[in-house]
Amino acid sequence: MVKVAILGFGTVGSGVAEVLTMNADNITRTSGREIGIKYIVDVREFPGSPFEKYMVKDFSLVENDPEVSIVVETIGGVGIAYEFSRRVLMAGKSLITSNKELVATHGHELLSIAKEKGVNYLFEASVGGGIPVLRPLCQCLAANRIEEIYGILNGTTNYILTEMITNGVSFEEALSQAQQKGYAEQNPAADIEGKDAGRKICILSTLSSGVHIYPDYITTEGITGVTLDDVKNAEKLGCKIKLLGRAVMNEEGKPAAYVAPHLVSEKLLISGVSGVMNAIVIKGNAVDEVMFYGPGAGKMPTASAVVADIIDAAKHEKTRKLMSWEDGNEESVADADLLVSRWYVRTTAQVPFEKVEEGVYV
Ligand code: HSE
Known about the structure:
Blueprint: E1 2-7, H1 11-22, H2 24-31, E2 35-41, E3 55-56, H3 59-63, E4 68-73, H4 80-90, E5 94-97, H5 100-117, E6 121-122, H6 134-140, E7 146-152, H7 155-167, H8 171-180, H9 189-192, H10 195-209, E8 219-220, H11 228-236, E9 239-249, E10 255-265, E11 277-284, E12 288-295, H12 299-315, E13 355-357, E14 360-361
Parallel strand pairs: 1-2, 1-4, 2-3, 4-5, 5-6, 8-10
Antiparallel strand pairs: 7-9, 7-11, 9-10, 11-12, 13-14
The structure holds L-homoserine (HSE).
């Protein structure tokens, strides 16, 4: 039996324990092995939880137990999660995570340790929640030169914008609903300021360019400045406001990557992506354009992707999946400010703009 430890029993960690238990028969069939939980590490108490018997507070039990070969990190952030992740890999155990901040910030270092130790570091759940997108990008689309990636990469902000557009709900009320539903990060500023989507476009850009694109090298703008007036103005233009992460590759394959709210024509499929759903469009020079769609946040969809990585790691216990990239620096990105775009400007100023059609002034 493959023994797994889960670090962090929050929304995603508890979902992982539930999926492993609920779908145990199916998981045994698809992985060819039984996969069971040995420890759940969390400093909190969970009296009455069906997983109480696995609960421990001491991480070193996991680190020093040779029976545990796969560890799931669902703590989040780059504090203790980073330290534990390094120690898990150094101990020669495969590591699975949904922690996009950690992958975007320390992915190169952690993958290098994984390579040195001959174990796997897998993070499908870090982008798009339950949507399979990283494996398709690295495997199914491997024959392509990737020209552009863009998408709705944050469920919380898409939920907020959808509520504003469809129900006229205020930003604050919609954010509070998203938090109650377990979509938002512990600190929702990362969602609404575009940082979470920024980490995800960094991971996608990194995988497509083969060079680590650090979040510090890209610009991010969130949706805190979007008002109900903007939403109505967009509607007049036949558009919906969507927070997009985008990376356009230059001729050298360097991504011009950024996150910003966009006016998206209602004629485009992605404008219909509502609520917590995410969609990622990948343009390759052979395949043309493909879109991946599904639940981008939430307990069970994210757990679905994490458990799939556990199964993959269990299947590849003796071999390493080829996954690595070079380290990057400021020179690894192209300048997103040089991309040509049309802009929407909201103003209350009385200036002599010329009306060219309903809602469009120049
Ligand atoms: N807070 C994130 C979101 C969770 O809303 O998309 C999934 O990454």
